[in-house]
Write a structure and sequence with these properties.
It is built from five helices and no strands. The chain is mostly helical.
Length: 156
């Protein structure tokens, strides 16, 4: 009698690893022999490439946001009051187009800050002891002892 070959294993569709739990599930199915290791490896490789691409896109968008915030902070910190008609957004070319104006505003702000701190140091009074209330209060009326008056009445 000839040895029988095992029936062909129907390959299950492997999970795409998006987190550690699905990656572990994929590893278990490979160990059980439900799917081929090469198929699982290719799935994992594609998922890893996708996650790297997502990470690059996320970092790029965060970099752009930080750059826009830095420009806004630079303009706001020098006292520039921006008014945008019709809901326009901050112009990123403003600092490069008006460097003299920005530097002048920055210097003005630093001077005023120095003046404020210098003036505050000069005007700061020495600490004085806490003031006490020196007004004399009227003394309370004398308290009558009821027992003593009652005893006196009885003696008479």
């Amino acid at each position: 009698m000839c040895p029988l070959t095992p029936p062909p294993v129907i390959q299950a569709k492997p999970l795409t690893p998006t987190n550690t739990r699905t990656l572990q599930a994929l590893d278990r199915t490979v160990r059980r022999g439900e799917i081929d290791g090469k198929v699982a490896f290719m799935k994992t490789k594609r998922a890893l490439e996708r996650s790297f691409a997502d990470e690059v896109l996320l970092q790029e968008s965060q970099r752009r946001e930080r750059a826009a915030e830095a420009l806004d902070r630079e303009v706001d910190s020098i006292g520039k009051q921006t008014r945008y008609p019709n809901g326009k957004v901050f112009d990123p070319d403003f600092p490069s187009e008006h460097p003299e104006e920005l530097e002048e505003m920055r210097q003005r702000e630093e001077r005023s800050k120095r003046r404020k701190t210098a003036g505050a140091k000069k005007k700061a009074p020495a600490k004085q002891p806490a003031r006490r209330n020196t007004k004399k209060r009227p003394s309370p009326p004398p308290v009558r002892n009821i027992r003593s008056t009652a005893v006196l009445d009885l003696e008479e």
